Amino acid sequence: MNETVNPQVNQPVPPPNYLVWAILSTILCCLPFGIVSIVFAAQVNSKWQAGDFEGAMRSSKSAKTWAWVSFGIGLAGMLIWVLLVALGVAAGVMSEIFTN
After folding, report:
1. pTM of the model
2. What is the pLDDT of residue 1?
């Protein structure tokens, strides 16, 4: 009997690469920080396959962190934009009140 052994049975599960989250945060939120997230997300699988398990975990954590940073910056930018629009509308209304 010649049995083949599957070496992946006892191997731990690779960390998530957060690539989808990185791409979405790049497109929808903040381009520069999203690109950093994509770079780290792209490193996870290759490091894992090369046997650098700790490096894969670090890249996974960095990809997640930079995706959140991108999301936070994008959200802050949108809130500032809404605030500026509201202030512009209020200034326009106030100028109409004082000119009449």
Report:
1. 0.79
2. 45
